[in-house]
Write a structure and sequence with these properties.
By secondary structure, the protein is α+β, with helices and mostly antiparallel strands. It is built from four helices and eight strands, in the order E-H-E-E-E-E-H-E-E-H-E-H.
Amino acid sequence: MAKLHDEVTAELREWIGKQQMFFVATAPLAGDGHVNCSPKGTDSFRILGPNQAGYLDYTGSGAETIAHIRENGRILFMFCAFEGGPKILRLHGKARFITPDSAEWNEYREHFPQSSGVRSIILADITRVCDSCGFAVPEYEFVQQRKILKDWSDKTGEAGVIEYQQKKNLVSIDGLPALDPKN
């Protein structure tokens, strides 16, 4: 049975910290726009307060999350227990993103591990915290985090990553603005 919480409790925070993967879902306002759900890994998610969370957003082939946040701010983080007892946790919220050229960058960046290829930090004020049973979620054994993105961004270098972002991350698949162009 689903249970609502007023905030991300210490117990939920501890449980989140043990999860190796989470999902981020966003959607545009347009009814014919594409809903986006992205799996995320690495040590990239943080609870920053009882009703605030954030994660490192790495460079990718698209920028749907940023575009949807720019348009309407709606976001959902979902965690599933793939090992141990069953549980699903959903954190609904209102998000914003900050990029390395933002005044707040250093304030928030210190909460996350150093790594290459970071495009932004997604921050969300959590408005709804709900857990549910997860009885139908299969069990998996965690092997390791993949290193392909890190290896690519290390090899490509900061200037190359920015160049890639300027080619691939300025608009969403629906044509919504995402990252700002660099001059």
